[in-house]
Write a structure and sequence with these properties.
The protein is of the alpha+beta class. Helices cover about 25% and strands about 40% of the residues.
């Protein structure tokens, strides 16, 4: 007969087996124990119970139908009881998870060794930034930590990571949303790398922002379910300033950070430093980049604002913009908006921040701002929370638990003092432990009760939670102070902030001797108002966050209940501490040797030493350590939000002050720097200022204004501008755009350029324009180029000929080809002038010399011609009367016509005018012009007349000024008079 092995049902009788066992580092408690075997293979199971994974995971899980292998290895079980569909928590990470499956897995090489198995749970996990739940498996080492790819507990690719959706959204400022595309799986950090912090979820992703390439970002966030208030910490710096190992990082390695460390190793770097950035360094800071027009590199290290979830520049950048260098920075970056400013920052302005605020480093500037609220209140709110989060927390807990310590010392001293023989100067009973026990062990249950009461009493009574609640109340008061500083007040949208800035304006304007300073304040404050209001909203959210934490600490609150459960589970360890306390106290008392004159001489010293020994044991209790961890988990986010929100207020103040100082003080220092390239020997720049307008992923307009010093042939200074615009269907006709639908227009111009070396009191406005198309990252065909000139001032020849107006512009290219010119000349009182346009234009700009026609001819493009002439004749001179105030009368007449192929459109213009003086007391001016436009849709006429008269000598005079406008559209007239 063949031996088939074990077959049949084998079940232990309840109460007749040891229900407790530790297997694979996990504590099991069995309620039933039984399997059905067939040929030594377990086919069904009635084994049920619960398992407990130790800290840092620290959770219990019910199971049934536990299966085993033929070698006795645990294989898997069903999740049972109240844990079916329940949400559990990983303690150190404060991570919610829903267990879906339970198994015990091993490496292939250890399949025949039943002792080398690890608990593996299939779970639904969560990340505070991701709306959707995550799916994955987590494995547990024998010490309660999570299995990683580097730990080697299981075969690759097991790594305790979670699958993310192909894309997800993260909340930004207000209603804005960041779109993110993950590059790998999410994972919880390794406990051993940061045991003094608390855990977090790691996510690496591309994050979409306007204009710039997607940011390469490493995120830290919570692992809680439905955590709408989750903090997001955003790190970056990739590829060369980010978290990397040997040149490998999240974005060039399929699986990076194989140990699930969650932050870089080395140089004593802390998690907090990684998140906030190393002081003065661009290392690990979020970074945005863009190569614009194929030649200009924008590369900004940024500072992530946790409270408002927006970004700003970490420092000013200097970039070569074609022919000049310019400082620039990102003032604001969100999912939908980018604000870039150009020009030197005011580096001497004191920067206001939490750091120098708490240190009370106030100057005349910062002091004026801080006078608007109680600095000691803000200081107390910040310092109070920092005290709770102190890693040691000894002072905090000693203060709270000192009544229990004092009571214990009193009991011991009351018991041992009668045992001191004053005559022999020695202890009656050398075995002091017996004496100490009389005052300690019999009463230590009361001491434990005091500890329990101190920890578990809700915030409405004396205890640890009351102390913490008091700190949170101080934090709320700090927010109230800051909020009151920027809330609307007395008709001022920014309240006291506006008053403070106006006060600063007075200080600075006096120092700079700039009386016009105040006139610019309102405009600059209005510019920063949306950002301040945004921070105001963030502060309100922080207040709500703190309120929720305080509510949780009240009687019946979830945190208060969590602490009660914690204490209940640690009563045995607290009672066990009595034995360690009694031994230490004996050592202290035995320091008093025979021959001492009086025990009373040592009473104070003995009491102090005993207090320290007892406090050491009490604060070292597991319940206190665990309570400390729970508090840090609850308050870390609160403290970070508080400091971030206040710093963001100060950041906006700093930004506003910088703009104000730069706006007014910019002209004080005209230090000219050489330009770049071949123009350097003859041209230099100073006082660069400007802005960039960005919409979605396009830089729609970038303008730089600067002063230029040129040698042509004498030294000459001029105000120059560089304007770069993106042309698209939103601002240009489709007929004027390439197939891509986009083009770039670059205009370089100068205003009020003095040409005294040619003509006194004459200046010119100059401009050159280039239109470029193509993919900004590859190819840039030139679509068109042109320029223009406009003379400002009168040019006189031979004392009788005066050129009063002279201007021209031209453009040549694929979509625009035109010449437009205008002139006005006066010869001995006779005036004549006009303008002409012919060609094809994609904007109204070529009609700069006739605003009347430009207002009625419609939308571009314009293909055709237009000419206009106007003449003024001095009537009194024609009849031989010299021009004087007694009689001076001129009449003007003008006419013009044009045809554009679009439509087609035919139009004409007529003008009549009269101007003069009579008897030196009457002055009159009258003009009327009429423009007619004929299109297939009908005839349009637009006319405007103006009459002005002044009789008498002002200020005692009679004035009349009337303007009438007539419009006829397809036979229907409308008019307006003012």
């Amino acid at each position: 007969m063949r031996r088939a092995g074990v077959t049949g049902i084998h079940e232990a009788v309840n109460g007749q087996f040891n229900p407790v066992a530790t297997i694979y580092g996990i504590d099991f408690e069995f309620t039933t124990l039984g399997w059905a075997f067939l040929d030594s293979e377990a086919v069904t199971s009635r084994t049920a119970g619960s398992l407990s994974v130790q800290y840092p995971s620290d959770f219990d899980l019910e199971f049934d139908k536990l299966m085993i292998s033929c070698q006795g290895a645990l294989l898997g079980a069903d999740i049972a009881g109240s844990d079916v569909g329940a949400t559990k928590k990983l303690a150190y990470w404060n991570a919610d998870f829903k267990p879906l499956s339970l198994a015990f897995e091993g490496k292939d090489e250890d399949l025949c060794d039943p002792s080398k198995r690890r608990l593996v749970l299939g779970v639904e996990a969560y990340a505070g930034t991701v709306p959707q739940p995550l799916a994955g498996k987590i494995g547990f080492q024998t010490n309660g930590n999570l299995i990683t790819l580097a730990s080697g507990d299981l075969d690759p690719p097991f790594d305790s990571r979670f699958k993310l959706p192909n894309s997800f959204s993260m909340g930004g400022p207000g209603d804005e949303i960041y779109a993110a595309t993950p590059v790998g799986d999410a994972y919880l950090n390794d406990y051993t790398a940061a045991p003094d912090d608390f855990g977090w979820m790691n996510i690496s992703a591309y994050v979409d922002v306007p204009f710039f390439s997607d940011m390469e970002i490493h995120l830290h966030t919570s692992a809680r379910k439905d955590d709408d208030e989750a903090l997001i910490y955003m790190m970056g710096g990739f590829p060369d300033h980010g978290f990397s190992v040997g040149g490998k990082h999240f974005f060039n390695e399929t699986v990076f950070d194989v140990g699930n460390r969650g932050f870089p190793q080395g140089n004593n770097l802390t998690v907090a430093q990684y998140r906030s950035g190393i002081d003065g360094s661009v290392q690990y800071r979020p970074r945005v980049k863009k190569r614009w027009l194929g030649v200009i590199d924008f590369d900004y290290p940024l500072q992530w604002r946790v409270a408002s979830r927006s970004l700003v520049s970490f420092e000013d950048e200097t970039t070569e913009l074609l022919v000049l260098r310019a400082e620039h920075r990102i003032d604001y970056l969100s999912p939908e908006q980018v604000e870039i400013s150009f020009g030197a920052s005011v580096s001497t302005l004191p920067k206001i921040s939490i750091a120098n605020f708490v240190a009370d480093q106030t100057s005349e500037v910062t002091g004026l701002l801080l006078n608007y609220f109680q600095t000691e209140v803000v200081d107390a709110g910040i310092q109070g929370l920092n005290e709770i989060l102190d890693v040691k927390q000894r002072d905090f807990f000693e203060k709270v638990l000192s009544p229990a310590v004092d009571a214990t010392v009193d009991q011991v001293m009351n018991a041992v003092t009668p045992n001191w023989n004053a005559a022999t100067k020695q202890w009656h009973n050398p075995n002091l432990l017996q004496v100490i026990d009389q005052g300690l062990l019999d009463e230590f249950d009361g001491v434990v009760a005091q500890i329990q009461s101190a920890l578990t009493t809700a915030k409405n009574a004396a205890g640890v939670l009351k102390e913490i609640d008091d700190r949170l109340a101080q934090a709320e008061d700090a927010l109230t102070q800051i909020e009151g500083f920027i809330e609307e007040k007395d008709g001022k949208p920014l309240g006291d902030l506006e008053s403070a800035v106006l006060g600063l304006a007075s200080i600075v304007s006096q120092a700079l001797d700039k009386p016009e300073f105040h006139e610019k304040i309102s405009e600059l404050l209005k510019r920063g108002e949306p950002r301040i209001i945004e921070v105001r909203v963030a502060i309100t959210q922080v207040r709500d966050f703190i309120t929720n934490v305080r509510d949780a600490m009240g009687e019946g609150g979830d945190f208060a209940n969590q602490v009660i459960s914690l204490v209940d589970n640690n009563v045995a360890s607290m009672n066990g501490a009595a034995q360690k306390v009694r031994t230490d106290i004996e050592k202290v008392l035995l320091q008093v040797r025979p021959g001492v004159d009086s025990l009373a001489d040592f009473d104070a010293a003995l009491r102090e030493q005993m207090k320290q020994r007892i406090a050491d044991h009490m604060i070292g209790l597991p319940v206190i350590r665990e309570f400390n961890r729970l508090i840090k988990q609850r308050l870390y986010d609160t403290t970070a939000l508080l400091t971030e929100a206040i710093d963001e207020v100060f950041d906006q103040i700093n930004l506003t002050l910088r703009d104000i100082i730069r706006e007014v003080a910019g002209g004080l220092d005209e230090k000219f720097d050489e330009m770049l390239g071949d123009v350097a020997p003859v041209m230099a720049t100073a006082n660069i200022d400007g802005y960039a307008k960005i919409r979605n992923d396009s830089l729609t307009e970038l303008r730089l204004d600067l002063k230029v010093q040129m040698d042509m042939p004498d030294e000459m200074k001029a105000h120059v501008f560089l304007l770069i615009k993106e042309l698209s269907s939103e601002n240009s006709p489709a007929e004027c755009l390439p197939a891509s639908g986009k083009a770039t227009e670059v205009t370089i111009g100068a205003k009020d350029v003095s040409v005294d070396w040619l003509f006194p009191d004459v200046a010119i406005n100059l401009g050159a324009k280039f239109v470029i198309a193509g993919d900004p990252d590859n190819n840039f065909p030139l679509l068109g180029m042109g320029g223009g000139i406009d003379v400002v001032g009168d040019i006189s020849f031979a004392d009788s000929i005066v050129i009063k107006k002279l201007g021209a512009s031209l453009m040549f290219g694929k979509y625009e080809n035109y010449i437009s010119a205008a002139a006005q000349i006066e010869v001995q009182g006779f005036q004549g002038g006009g303008g002409i346009f012919f060609g094809r234009a994609c904007s109204i700009d070529p009609f700069f010399w006739d605003e009347t026609v430009a207002a009625v001819i419609g939308e571009p493009p314009f293909t055709g011609f237009y000419g206009y002439g106007e003449f003024w004749i001095p009537i009194n001179q024609l009849i031989g009367i010299p021009s004087t105030c007694l009689f001076n009368l001129s009449a003007g007449v003008g006419a013009g016509a044009g045809v554009f192929a679009e439509g087609p459109t035919v139009f004409g213009k007529m003008f009549l005018g009269v101007s003069g003086d009579l008897l030196c007391i009457v002055s009159i001016t009258g003009e009327i012009s009429l423009v007619g436009v004929a299109r297939p849709s009908g005839l349009s006429l637009a006319g405007e007349g103006r009459f002005q008269a002044e009789i008498g000598y002002c200020p005692v005079c009679l004035k009349l000024d009337k303007t009438a406008r007539l419009v006829n559209e397809n036979g229907k007239w409308s008019r307006s008079v003012k």
